[in-house]
Amino acid sequence: MAKSLRQVLRAEEHDLKTEGQALLDKGEVRTDEENARLDAISARLTELIPLIAHEDALADAMRVATYSPAITGVHNLQEDKPWASLGEFLSAVGRAGMPGGPIDMRLLAASGAQSGVPSEGGFLVGVDYTTRLLDLAQQAAQLWPLCDNIPIGPGSDGIEAPYIAETSRANGYRWGGVQVYRRSEAGTVTSTKPAFRQFDLRLEDLMGLAYATERLLRDATALDAIFTRAFASEFAFKMDDELIRGTGAGECLGLLNAPALVSIAKETGQAAATIVTQNISRMWAAMPARLRGGAVWIYNQDCEPQLDELAIPVGTGALEPRFVTYGPDGILRIKGRPALAIEQCETLGTVGDFMLVNWGQYAVITKGGIEAQQSIHVKFEYNERAFRWVTSNNGAPKWKTYLTPYKGSNYQSPYVALATRS
């Protein structure tokens, strides 16, 4: 069977790229004749790229003409969702980014904006895909969905909210200074009022960069699967990681760096890199009683052998702790609350390896979906294309410091960790 012009052009392109790459790899040892040949290859590839793009566009048009029956009297769904998948969209972006490449009109309709110079921006992903990608990332995360998620509307870059500056439950300190008196004490009544502080959280950009070869750009199905999975997985990992150890400078403030964290010291004589039942009891006691119902335990998987071997010393023997159980679903529960293995937790023996947290007391803010743009480096061959993904979010604990209880000297907080055991 005779080859089509499209196949002939692509075969020539492949051969020229292979030959040109071999010459480029020789570097400074190239001869004058080889440099001249490299220039000739570059010139020919420049001619081939728009020719191939033209043939691709013709082939696409023929497929539509051949397989699209004439249907009338129905609503055209393409007007609402013009792309079958993210991969199809990215493939169209790749073709449009080549010099002289065809621009699919759906790019303009779906994006609402575009840059005439692909190397300086490209086409924006439609709202339906940016929202889907962000949803997938948040679903893949384990901790982010547990937080108090606050969407930020148009025209805003963060939130400001007053909160009660309560650091102690002692008389005269509750609600930041409110106190009431019995009538018989009227002669000594002192006026009081609540003390407020400002909770201020600003959006910060979280950016990812991915590369796609021209071959991958031609396979919309594979492109959709690879980019969607990679984005959801990596953004989810990063968001969860910041919730634990973020510095708060241009990123989320992680609990390990939060002033409100209560760190429970190891027991006297406790061996290094161990967890004992007294650790768990003291951590549970540090969680405010009213917040225990929403608390979860998180731990590094290295801790599991220690949790399985927990025991309560009794004379010369020991009892299994009844507050550590596995449900029929295989989920570990401690004090009735679920325990989740999180790879972002520190390894066994280090602060952050075993924590008790009420994530409802941690605020995260998000705005919109994800902005995605593409860029092409103009050189003699176009092997890869870069895609940039940017989303805006941030997070911080709602509590600014731990709480001193009304009676007792042990601090309380919704964020409790077990101190280093070394």
What does this molecule look like?
With 422 residues, this protein is of the alpha+beta class. The chain has 3 domains: 87 residues, no CATH class; 157 residues, Major capsid protein gp5 fold (2-Layer Sandwich); 114 residues. It has 9 helices and 15 strands. The strands form 4 sheets. A 7-stranded mixed β-sheet has the order 5-15-12-6-11-10-9. The protein has a 4-stranded mixed β-sheet with strand order 1-13-14-4. Strands 2-3 form a two-stranded antiparallel ribbon. A hairpin with an 8-residue loop joins β13 and β14. α3 packs across α7 and α5 packs across α7. It starts with a helix and ends with a strand.
**Order of strands across the main sheet:** 5-15-12-6-11-10-9
Helix content: 25-40%
Question: In terms of structural class, how would the helical and strand content be classed?
Answer: alpha+beta
Strand content range: 15-25%
User: Could you give the count of β-strands?
Assistant: 15
Low-confidence stretches: 63-80, 109-127, 377-382
Give the CATH architecture of the largest domain: 2-Layer Sandwich
Q: Write down the CATH topology of the largest domain.
A: Major capsid protein gp5 fold
What's the CATH first level of the largest domain? Answer: Alpha Beta
- Main sheet, how many strands, which sense, barrel? 7 strands, mixed
Number of helices: 9
* Rg result: 30 Å
Mean pLDDT: 77
Taken together, the total number of domains comes to 3
Shape: elongated
Distance between the termini: 74 Å
SSE order, as H and E? HHHHHEEEEHHEHEHEEEEEEEEE
